[in-house]
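Sample entry copied in:
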Amino acid sequence: MSTTLLTQDIWPQLTSAVRGSRQRCAVAVAYFGAGAGRLLPLPKGSRLVVDASDRAVRAGQTCPADLKRLVNRGVTVYSVPNLHAKVFVLGQAAYIGSANVSSRSASQLVEAVIRTTESDAVRAARAFVDGLCLHELTPSVLKRLATIYRPPLVPGAKRGSKAAKPSSSRPSLPPLVLSQLRLVTWSERDQALHDAALPVAAKRRQHPRSHTLDSFRVSGKCTVVRGDVVIQVTNEGGRRLVSPPGNVLHVRTRREGNRQVSVVYLEVPNRRRRLAETLARALGEAPERLKRGGVVRDAMFAQALLNKWAE
């Protein structure tokens, strides 16, 4: 008996477990989207509980056509409005986590699922699902639901548009920028530029209790934009200090002929800065990696940097 956390290739493992099950499966999962029957090809005699309320069907979160295919295959399907659980009892194992049965879960979302073969946990999971098997969806009910079903609306697209598949199962991160800074005395004009835009940045703060409103000056072209995450690496007389990652709230720019000066405002967690050499050693990286400015292109390095500050 074992318990494991699954964070990669979750749906191939769930689909394989369903196909390898020699007994009826018991599943309670909030949403069962279009194409879900291919992800979860439940065998005859299995029980499936979903949220097939009118609201969920109209939103395209649960697809009556896919449920009907399972019913035709001999699966009994039930509906519980406001269901939010994701519990899969497949063979001798139970899977409990975040994944709905949808192509979006399989191809875009970052999911996590606990797999356990502990007998007490598996029995409890099956009992949980069985306890929800109250309102069976008959063919006539599914026929009515099919008339109100609408394809899901993909964010930023027209209804029914297909979202592009990501190139990686890693979490999608905002651009992470290393800004190489040094201590200088600001001119009166630079200070006036900073003070004029400070109220705008202050209004955009999200975490006034746990974060500090910080700023720095960029001479020349500024590529940082609102929404980026910036890690400041400041050279203070020979030693480099690395600040926690801050979220860019605002950028104010002034032009003087061909010269450009910008002030970047960001919200930074209330945590102590670290010596670049110490941080690099903790990451298992060469200190030179923290001395390079610009966007961090190495996704693994960017994630390691952010994770180190989250510890």
